[in-house]
Amino acid sequence: MMNTEYRKTLPGTSLDYFDARAAVEAIAPGAYDMLPYTSRVLAENLVRRCDPAALTDSLKQLIERRRDLDFPWFPARVVCHDILGQTALVDLAGLRDAIAAQGGDPALVNPVVPTQLVVDHSLAVECGGFDPDAFAKNRAIEDRRNEDRFDFINWTKRAFRNVDVIPPGNGILHQINLERMSPVIQVTDGVAYPDTLVGTDSHTPMVDALGVIAIGVGGLEAESVMLGRASWMRLPDIVGVELTGKPQPGITATDIVLALTEFLRKEKVVSAYLEFYGEGAANLTLGDRATISNMAPEFGATAAMFYIDAQTIKYLKLTGRDDALVALVETYAKQAGLWADSLTKARYERVLTFDLSSVVRNIAGPSNPHKRVPTSELAARGISGKVENEPGLMPDGAVIIAAITSCTNTNNPRNMIAAGLFARNANRAGLVRKPWVKSSLAPGSKAVTLYLEAAGLLPELESLGFGVVAYACTSCNGMSGALDPMIQQEIIERDLYATAVLSGNRNFDGRIHPYAKQAFLASPPLVVAYAIAGTIRFDIEKDVLGVDADGKPVRLADLWPSDEEIDAIIASSVKPEQFRRVYEPMFAASVEHGEPAEPLYDWREMSTYIRRPPYWEGALAGERTLRGMRALAVLGDNITTDHLSPSNAIMADSAAGEYLAKMGLPEEDFNSYATHRGDHLTAQRATFANPTLKNEMVVVDGQVKAGSLARIEPEGKITRMWEAIETYMTRKQPLIVIAGADYGQGSSRDWAAKGVRLAGTEAIVAEGFERIHRTNLVGMGVLPLEFKPGTNRKTLGIDGSETFDVIGERTPRADLTLVIHRQKKDGSSERVEVPVTCRLDTAEEVSIYEAGGVLQRFAQDFLESSQAAA
Question: What is the pLDDT of residues 375-385, one digit of tens each?
Fold first, then answer.
């Protein structure tokens, strides 16, 4: 529902808008000009949607930069990829069953906010880009492996209102969102207002580049927004980032974003909304901006905004948006104070300055996006070195995967054209890809293929093994597919330190491929270069890539295209018609739902992909005691959601692999952990299943042993993590996890919270939490607790043999007490009381936690509403 006060006619149009400036200045004259871009968009949302009785107090939070009141935010839409989106819809289908079982109307459970689901996470690159039929073969395998999932997804678009589905084989969610889905300015019931959204993926902020507030959330929070509930927030830190200078020749947007990631991580912008501005920002193309905004989670930030300006309008025209929409965006932005020129007086909590001219060519790795390495320093950093090439054998450091992948970089025409020109130059010099390199090209949009074809560059990439294998996330999401068996065997037998190089946004341990012991992020042309080099031990700036027909040595600089040539190719080959040709039929098909389906899904009993969720049954519906908890794991810093619930291929000797084998699946169809998240019996076996996990409770010969391992207490028995979980579940033993700093960083993976809750975990105590994972824990009824500064697992001497209680009244950010019970060697007992902070940050979060989680809260609300209606 919209309010009526401050609703006015938008000049030059037949539409209305809500005048946030007038509302703000009625409280504090002149204040609107000092609000950052983010606050202006949030103010409009409040003026249009907030309860009028709460409007003044909510706006004062923005005007006075206060953080003592929660205020509502109503995103205009929800976007999902098929993994978390499907999981969210499985939850809603299960909620329908729970409502029906208690006599309620299941049709009440229905998204009221437009929800767009793009199937992009389920394709594995089983066939590399050197196979001319790779795309068709990979898609056929995807359809076969995911038949259960796709049946469910097809049911959802017919059973639920307001759900549109883009089927597999069409592109990556964030790139489609950037190139078509986002109108920048929405129109509903004759009212124009800023597009805003939440998405079930941490890289949802990519469309921040358009001036659209888009944030990544967990599946549970997305479900709440789908059902029309407000997303409650307190005013975040809003940090200005002034970009100065101009990039040096030959520097790509990838180089810029990797340098920014290092810089912003050091500046500690955790959970902040960043706003990029300045002369440097104004000169960046929208594609360059999108590459930057995409990596907001790698900065540690919630959002990475750019103002609306001439570059925005140019991009909307380039991507074939309707002329009337483009005109509306400019008109609205200028009237509402969202145009760049209107923000010269904006004030920020702090301002950072970054000089674009300081950026050099970079890669990042071997296991974190912020670990930047200038390519000029590869030898000094110990990455490159002497390569011992034995005939017929792979070198140590062999690049086994070279993937041009990810919306981060394939959205950007400059990056993709640069890769194509580099490939052309390499072909002219007679260079080839090394035979052990599994190369691939997976654009986030079919428009990329069209403009590469128009430029004559797609055949050049194909000649080097970079043919199109998919329009999907692929290697960026750990779906690199199987290696050639002979190559895999050589890696195992010789214990090679194999490497992946990709144009993605994450390279956490074990994420890209189980046999890639390290992974480096690089620009698309550098990915091509490393496929030719064949090893990470190669000094990519200095060493000789090969010799040409005249016997002359060929180095990177000889192949790198000039900025002028890149820009000329873009001007001649990237056209609006290409985007219209791709998207007009795609979106026409996405809204054709066919006959309505039955409101209750017919669950397939033997499915390992889709199963009715258990969250309203048994122990999960019971009371959490927070008493007598035993440690399931004691962990260090920087635990990622890939550690907590990996997304990549399921190995035969894993707990999930053994379960799938018992269910009759052949090993070649095990698929990835991610694709099985609609079946809790498979997905819970992924809990702490990452082979690089270091559980400090598992000490062998004085060293912490890596692996999916645990120690069952009080016996002290070391075993596989899943066997420990099963043991504790049988005993009905409440559990706790103790961790270090930055717990839960990485993908917005709700199963990282669901898995520990299903295991019986009632609380997580850490030195700090990543934002999305913390909200997922709350949504699953797991209590997040934070050590006070200076206190941690080491200062307390926690070794996992203890039992734990949590006492105190749970209110927003209250001081609670963690009670540690120890048995000493002399048989006596010790009780230690440790003050901790309750990380239920808002009254709404307390309410969700006390209900048992967001899904239990939904069921209560729907039953109450149906009883009231009766």
Answer: 999 999 989 98
